[in-house]
Amino acid sequence: MIERDDADRSYSERVIVLAPTMRDGDVTRRLLAEAGIDVAVCQGWRHAEELMHEGAGALMVTDAALADAGFAVLLNVLERQPAWSNLPVLALCRHGLEAPGLREARLRNLTVLDRPTSARVMVSAVRTALRGRRWQYQIRDQIDSLLRADRSLRQADQRKDEFLATLAHELRNPLAPIRTGLQLLASNPPRDEGQYKGVTEMMDRQMSQLLRLIDDLLEVSRISTGKLILQREPLDMRRVVEMALESCQPLIERGGHQLSVTLPDEELWVDGDLTRLAQSLSNLLNNAAKYTPDGGSIWVTLTRAGAQAVLTVRDSGVGVPQDMIGRVFDMFAQVNRSLERAQGGLGIGLALVRSLVTLHGGRVSAASAGPGLGSTFTIELPLAAEESAPAPLPAVEPEPAHPARILVVDDNDDAATSLAMLLSLSGHEVEVANSGPAALQTAASFLPQAVFCDVGMPGMDGHEFATRLRQDPRFATTLLVALTGWGSEEDKKRSRAAGFDEHLTKPASVDAVTALLARL
User: Fold this and answer.
1) What is the count of structural domains for the chain?
2) 166 lies in which domain range?
3) Three-class SS of 377-403
4) Which of 8, 159, 309, 358 is buried most, with the most CB atoms less than 10 Å from its CB?
5) Are residues 112 and 166 in the same domain?
6) Can you list the alpha helix ranges (DSSP code H) found in 225-345?
7) What value does the mean pLDDT of the chain take?
8) Is the peptide bond before 82 cis (omega within 30 degrees of 0)?
9) Residue 489: is its pLDDT beyond 80?
């Protein structure tokens, strides 16, 4: 990094004139000032040195100054310039380079003006010197920009490496027990139903952890690119709390935490997205469960404060150091990396909370008395105008799906076969195709009532398959479902435009598939 004095940071086009003779100083000031040039005249070298440290566009010295012993001090100042700086020096003297003081000066940026010189020549030389000085400052700023960009790239590269290492670690954590569970089921079948259930529940928990990691990454991408669209509705915040608690209950129970929930008797209405607000609270609850030792306490409180709904999550956990309070909502921030990794996480949960709450016009904050003294996270959301609660819908039990002819289309044979096996266990007649053209041929003879189709297939992709299938009148009412790893709003719009009725992201839950088939 280029080192420089603080004074050199300020851009200046002031011309410092060192003229021990008062008449020289007055004449030079008048000539340059009439040309609109900023001038500072000094009679002694100490004053000139002070002004040079404050910032200068050029230094003009007269032959009288050159003969002064103090000029050697100014030469030392010029020698100590930063690498980017090369202050122009203009010498007014009668003997040119042979003048005393210049012969051994070895100045890098020297212009000699023979005396007597005209005002026009002097002004022209000074303006040329200032123009060159201006370029020096511009080059300095460009160097600074390049250095800042280089530092940013290095930091980004370091964060990328740390993130990839964390991601690999977090993906391996759930994959390891899933693989072990599969090996147990294959090589040593459980002897009783309880053992079998324990293995499958463990695998399901770890799969949920994998999906949560992926969903968090996708949410960050959607928010950062402005592609996340809130599905707003009049919403009672008590419903948000109930939904979040339902999803976090298994994690809280596994830690043996004591959960205390305090809700108001009154309705607290906000204009919000139920899924996103529940996701925000879930992230806070998951965070509290991770950082609270087994058997600790977690308190959830919802209250009204003026025109705000205030939701707090407090725990008796490890707490947050004071130097981290302001950074806990930053992307990839981790208060205790070893504990976080032990519990699983990428350090983006709290960043998601802040982004989602901000999109709702609210704010989120953190507080802690220090390590070992627990933490408190608070969400504040503006209350909506008084709304009457929507009429409750009668509870309707989903009807079981009747046996149907189903075509599964996926170039991943394992994915297609496993889904086909699952559907067959429910009594459906299932055919599998691994490409778009093969699927069209199978559909022509099989006449499926429902089709689950991958989108990202080579050759004929799922969109083209759906469009061509819909062109056949026999499949005008066939239930056509896109089953894919692409799940953004743009992806869903493309699916609908191609002819799909529904868009599910992989891996789709059994309940979601069953609910769609019930429509048949």
Assistant:
1) 4
2) 159-224
3) EEEEEECCCCCCCCCCCCCCCCCCCCC
4) 309
5) no
6) 237-254, 274-290, 322-325, 337-343
7) 83
8) no
9) no
Determine the straight-line distance between the first and last CA of the chain, rounded to whole angstroms. 69
pLDDT > 80? residue 378: yes
Token pair 């670690």 is found at 169
- What does the buried/exposed string (b/e) look like for 340-356 if buried means 16 or more CB atoms within 10 Å of the residue's CB? bbebbbbbbbbbbbbbb
Q: Are residues 194 and 242 in the same domain?
A: no
Token digits for 351?
Answer: 């960043």
Cβ distance 200 to 181 under 8 Å?
Answer: yes
pLDDT tens, residue by residue, 205-252: 777 767 766 777 777 666 766 667 788 899 999 999 998 888 788 888
Q: Which residues contact 138 (CB under 8 A, 6 or more apart)?
A: none
Same domain, 450 and 508: yes
The pLDDT assigned to 342 comes to 41
Residue holding tokens 């099989």? 446
Does residue 382 contact residue 273 with C-beta atoms inside 8 Å?
A: no
Residue ending a domain, choose from 201, 224, 247: 224
Q: Which of these three, 97, 121, 144, is where a domain ends? A: 144
Q: CA-to-CA distance for 183 and 189, rounded, in angstroms?
A: 9
427 has pLDDT over 50: yes
Q: What is the pLDDT of residues 254-307, one digit of tens each?
A: 889 999 999 999 999 999 988 889 889 988 998 899 889 999 999 999 999 999
Global confidence as pTM: 0.52
Asked if the structure places residue 106 within a domain, the reply is: yes
Q: Distance between CA atoms of 298 and 308, rounded to whole angstroms?
A: 23
Residue 154 lies in a domain: no
In the numeric block, which tokens belong to residue 59? 């230094």
CATH of the domain at 245: 3.30.565.10
